[in-house]
Amino acid sequence: MESLRTIGIDPGSRATGYGIVEGDGRRLRYVASGVVSLQGQLPLWDRLGIIYTRLTAIIHEYQPGCMAVEDVFLAKNVKSALKLGHARGAAILAGVNAGLGIHEYSALQIKQAVVGYGRAAKDQVEDMVRFFFGLKGQLNPNASDALAVALCHLNTGASLSRWKVSSQP
User: Fold this and answer.
1) How far is the C-alpha of 139 from the C-alpha of 132, rounded, in Å?
2) Residue 68's domain is classified under what CATH number?
3) CA–centroid distance for 145 within its chain
4) Sheet-wide strand order for 4-10
5) Which of 95, 134, 155, 164 is the most buried (most CB within 10 A)?
6) Please, are residues 107 and 73 in contact by the beta-carbon 8 Å criterion?
7) Residues β-bridged to residue 9
8) Coil, helix or strand for 128?
């Protein structure tokens, strides 16, 4: 199976995490991760522009084959949900304009794929991300979540590929 480089995105209007990983269905490799940090006092449209511009540069630098994005599942209030939706849109647009396939996963799906339990705590997800990639020390929570999104996609894609291959005569 060919190795697939994936960028995972944990969107946010003040901090958007990204994680880039490679996998071939058997082995996983950490490539890079980080956070696009945004000043809260900037107008939302400026923050969206920064998310788009920085993710476009990151995509250009690391050349992933696809993008996996965490889906919005809840927010504290409607205004927060709208801002989060805008941040997701800016991130997805960066991927679409780079020609990437976009894949969305709920928090439940991500936790299930990474930890094996859909209601896992954030620290359990981070522990498993560090374990899978052999990373030492604390990770930024947004970067850790983005790596988990990418890992979810690779695990899901690898499983689907194996099932497709094994189900053929």
Assistant:
1) 13
2) 3.30.420.10
3) 7
4) 28-37, 15-23, 4-10, 66-70, 101-105
5) 95
6) yes
7) 18, 69
8) helix
The pLDDT of residue 168 is 44
pLDDT at 167: 41
Domain limits for position 17: 4-167
pTM (global) more than 0.85: yes
Instruction: Tell me how many domains the chain contains.
Output: 1
What is the DSSP code string of 88-118? HHHHHHHHHHTT-EEEEE-HHHHHHHHTS-T
pLDDT at 80: 83
Separation in Å, CA 37 to CA 13, 16, 58, 109, 144: 9, 7, 14, 26, 14
Residue-level pLDDT at 75: 60
Distance between CA 121 and CA 96 in Å, rounded?
Answer: 31
Rounded mean pLDDT for each run of 10 residues along the chain, 169 residues in total: 88 96 87 95 96 98 97 75 92 98 94 90 93 92 96 78 47
**Cα–Cα distance between 89 and 5 in angstroms, integer?**
21
